[in-house]
Amino acid sequence: MNRRGWRFLLAVVAGVSLARAARIDLQAYASSFDSIPIAVLDFRPLSGASLTGDEPWKVVADDLEFSGRFVVVRTARVDTALFAANNVGIFVDGEYSVSDNAVTLDCYIHDVVSLDLVVGKKYKGEERHLRSMAHRYSNHLMEMLLGEHGPFESKIVFVQDKGPTKNLVIMDFDGHNEKQLTTSTWVNVFPAFVDSNTMVWTSFYRGKPDIYKGSIATGKYEIFVYSRFVDTSPSYSPIVGRVAYASSRNGDLDIYTCNLDGSDKKQLTHHRAIDTSPCWSPNGYQIAFTSDRSGQPQIYVMDVDGVNTKRLTFQGKYQDSPAWSPKGDKVAYTSFQNGKFDIWTINPDGSEAKQVTNVAGNNEYPAWSPDASHIAFSSTRGGKSDIYAVRPDGTGVKRLSSVGNAKMPDWSRF
Amino acid sequence: MVRIIRVVLTCAVLMIAIQAKCGKQKSTLDQLPQTTKPDTSFAAPEVFAPDTSDDAMFRAADLEAELERQVRENLKPVYFDFNSYALTGESAERLGVAANFLMQHSTMRVLIEGHCDERGSAEYNMGLGENRSRAVKNYLADYGVSSLQMEITSWGKERPVVSGCTDESCHSQNRRAEFKVLAR
To answer: Looking at the complex, does the CB of residue B91 fall below 8 Å from at least one CB of chain A?
Structure first.
C-alpha cells in the first residue's frame, strides 16, 4: 500500500547550459534584491500536447512564492511593460510535450532585456509525477539563484486523529499528494522522519505505548523499542545515527538514546521528574527536551552524554514540544500563555524568546522545514485542527492540510 | 363341618381365580411382540430428569457476570485534579476498596492506565498519565497488594472518555486512572 509514487525515476535528461556572451549572472542578480523579482510564464505545448494534471508553471510560481524570497509575477506571455513595472530582470518559461505516457518539460530562464536564454533544464517523467518534476525545477531555481537547497521536494507527515483511531498521513510540503501511511484501528502518534523513506513513531498496538519504525517504500513496520513501561516520543539524528526517546523503565519518564534497531540503550536523565519530548541539535552534540523538574514543564538542553543541562525557557508556566532549527540557531517550542498554546522560538542559549503565532485557537507541535525557512504546526484556528506553515518571523501563514483532524506534524529533511 | 366345607370352597374359588389370572397373564406375554406401546409407564420419569449440563453452563455464566460485577464495583476509576497526579481523599477511599479486592483475588493481574484531559501537550501528558498510574500502583502496593499483580501504562490524552470538552466538569471525567483486568 505504501509504495511511494514520488520515489519515481525522474530523469533529468540534461542540464543544458547554453553559454552566451555577457550572460546575466543569476546569483549576482538575486543578491541585489531583498525579494527577487521573477516572472513565471505559461509553458507552451509542443505539437498539440495537453496536460490533465496541475500546470507545472503554476507549481513553480507557487513554490517560489512560498519561499518568501521572490516577488513572483505571473503572466501568460512576455510582457515587457509588466516586467519593467515590477523591476523583473529574468523570467521563467518553458515547453512541454507528451509521448508514451511520459511528459517532457523544457524549462528556461530568460534575460528580460536581451531575451537571451540564460539556462535551460529538461525533465521527463510520468504525468502523475508532474508536480514532483515542477518541484524539482523549483529546487534547481533556488540552487541557481541563491546557491541554497529549496524545501520543495520535502514531505510532511502528520497524525490524522479519528478519536480511538489515529493514523499517520504523509503529504508534499505544500499539502498535495496526501497519502495514509498506516491504516490501523489503534492509536499512532508522534511521527518523526529518519530519512525521506523511514519513519519512527509511538504506537499503542500492544495496548501500551511502544516505538515503531516503518518503511514508506515497502509499507512494512516493526516494533523496536518496547518494555513493560512507557516508551514514547522518538526523534532521530542522522549525524549520530541514533534515536532519542522518553521511557519510564526506571521510574518516571527519562530521556534515553538507542540505535535504530533498539540496541545500546543509554539513559541520559535520571531526574525524579517527567523528562520527555527529546529533539536533537542539528550537529548531534545536544538534545533539547521538556522537563517538569522545576514544577512545571519547561524546555531544557543538555549534551548528548546527559551533562551540562541548562534551562532555556522561563516565561510562561507550560512549555513543550521543542524542535531545533536545522540551521541550529533557534529552538521552536509550544508555550501555554494567556489561556492558549502558541509557537515560540528561542536561541539555544536561552536568549530572545519570541512569539511566532498569535491568533485564535491552539497552535502546537512545531516542526522546521529542512531549509529552516518555515515552521509547520497544528492549529485549531479554523475550529478544527489542521497543519499550517509559518515563517519564523510570523509571516506567510499557509494552511497545508484540510482533513480537519490533523496534528503533530514532522517535516522531512531535504 | 360346615366350616370345613366353607374353607375348602374358599380355597377352590381362590385357586380358580389364581388359575384364571395366570392364564390371562400368559396370554398377554404371548401378545407382547405385537404391542405398540410397551413401556410408556417407565418412559415418563426420563422426561422430567434434570439436564445437568445446562445447569452447569448457567452457573459458569453467573460466575463470570458476578466477577465482572465485582470488578466494576471494586476497581472503579479514580480521578485527578488538573495537571496533578496526587490522589484525592475520594481516590484513596476507592483504592482501599480496590486493594482489598485485589488482595482477596491474589491471582488477578491488572493493568492500571493513566489518562489526561485534552488540554496540555500530548508528549508531556504521556508522562503525566504515567505518573497517575504509578501513584495508584504505589498506593495499592503500600496497602499490601503484590506489585506482581499490577502493570502500569499511560495513554496520555489519546483516549479521553469524552472528547471536545469545553468545561471543567467534562474535562474532569478524562483525568483518570482505570483498571483493566489482564488475568483472573
So the answer is: no
Q: Hey, are the CB atoms on A297 and B124 less than 8 Å from each other? A: yes
Q: Are A343 and A377 a contacting pair, CB within 8 Å?
A: yes
Query: Which pLDDT tens digit goes with each residue over A136-190?
Result: 999 999 999 999 999 999 999 999 999 899 999 999 999 999 999 999 999 999 9
Strands A319-324 and A331-337, sheet pairing: antiparallel
Strand order in the sheet with A210-215: A188-195, A198-203, A210-215, A221-225
**Which of A207, A232, A252 is closest, CB to CB, to B131?**
A252
**Which residue from A252, A318, A364 is facing B127, i.e. has the nearest CB?**
A252
DSSP state for residue A37 in the 8-state scheme:
E
| Surface of B (51-90) touching A: CB under 8 A | none
Chain A residues with CB inside 8 Å of B161's CB? none
Phi and psi based region of residue A190 (left: phi greater than 0; alpha: psi -120 to 50; beta: remaining): left
State the pTM of this model: 0.85
Kindly report, residue by residue over B57-81, the tens digit of the pLDDT: 667 778 888 899 999 999 999 999 9
Measuring CA to CA, which residue among A270, A256, A343, A331 is closest to residue A299? A331
Is A253 within 8 Å of B130 when comparing Cβ atoms? Answer: yes
For an interface test with B, the pick among A186, A274, A299, A380 (most B C-beta atoms closer than 10 Å) comes out as A274
Contacts 24+ apart (CB under 8 A), A14-17: A14/A121, A14/A122, A15/A121, A15/A122, A15/A140, A16/A119, A16/A120, A16/A121, A16/A122, A17/A119, A17/A120
Interchain pair A230, B111: CB under 8 A: no
Asked if the Cβ–Cβ distance from A230 to B122 is below 8 Å, we say no
| Rounded CA separation B74/B97 (Å) | 6
CB-CB contact of A361 with A380 (8 Å):
yes
Instruction: Give the residue among A154, A147, A148 at the shortest CA–CA distance from A132.
Output: A154
Contacts of A246 in chain B (CB under 8 A): 123, 126-127
